[in-house]
Design brief:
heterodimer, A: alpha/beta, Rossmann fold, six-stranded mixed sheet, 9 strands, 38% helix, B: mainly alpha, 2 domains, 8 helices
Amino acid sequence: MAIYLKDVIFEFENHRVIDQVDLNIIEHRVGIIGVNGSGKSTLARLIAGLISPIHGTIKINDIDIYKDRKSALNTVGIIFQNPDHQIIFPTCIEEISFGLIQQGITRYEAEKEALKILKRFGKLHWAEQLAHNLSQGQRHYLCLIAVLAMKPDVIVLDEPYAGLDLPTSLRLKQTLEKLNQQLVMISHDKEILADFDRILWIDNGKIINDGSFENVFPDFEKEMRRRANVSD
Amino acid sequence: MLAISLAGTSWAHNSRVGFKLAALSLISILIFFITNWILLLFCLIGIVFLYYSVSFNALRKGMNLLRPIVLVIGLIWIFHILRGEYLSGIIICLRLLVLVALANFVTLTSKLSDMMELFLWILNPLKLIGIKTAPIALALGMVIRFTPVLIERAKQLSQSWRARGLRYTNWRIIIPIFITVIDDADRVSEAIRARGGV
């Protein structure tokens, strides 16, 4: 499993959000850190193939995930920070089936598959429930289940722990730990990132530090403290 | 995340969407032949029982959904009274109530994906002239799905307005609502793209 970025540039309204990023990610658990507006979410969206770079190449397992959406669906999934931006359909079973149908199976099979995965996560009773009646944490979980159902090789998560209460985030952590998929996660959480294999520190659209948690995070923290004490 | 939808597996949920919509269309035509207000009142009572046959919760939700149009119906009625047309006013208002309540009933008890499938089927002839129908069906589905979200957005924004403003919200809130809605639409289109829609 490899995520490959070569000379990637992304601009938004003449502002360079991602600036010549080269990456080759083969590690199992990869964290992306950086301040607000540094380009983390844009990088996540590029890796998930939601937006196209204005220059450069992005490939996952040799698949052009922006152009070849059909293969991309089996390759990469993304979980947004806010589940309300992700959930498209009213009932849970429709929400989970949607991606499966897009992958090319019939609706009947998709619903059968959706029930199977709900059962696996002990949430069979959610099937006919309305997603908006679930709690924030449960909706997050639903988004994860909907993506897992599609069996991608890579899952990109954009601050999945933001806004979750303690039990919910612990449960999410346990679930994520068990996954075989390669995970690329935007997070600020020191405890969660501590177990990760590689940390990418992004600032002003450039990767300014890249390495193990022990090598990157202390410097990041020091820099954040420094910035907090400098007045604008 | 809101939607005019009711979770459940009642008889109404299990009936085919095509059947429900066909019945609704038929009743919409037939109701214009009923000119007796007492008969229309009975229709309305019948609808109460229809909702109740699903669940008490359905009845409550159905009543809530009618709230916004009661105002409009009231206005129509007042207009008729001013013109001295008491009886025809009552008849028109009752017809409207019956139809909206029935239409809500169909939406409440139908799955969005079933509706979209039906749209696809209805749009089938367009395929003959080379038009892709899947995006149209998805767009129609999204209209059903996101109308209540728009209303909720408007409520939220007018609350933020009131939290820091002295007066009730006025027309100026329309532009911020518009902007947040476009923003939401961007997010949803990303979500659809992420899972391969269109």
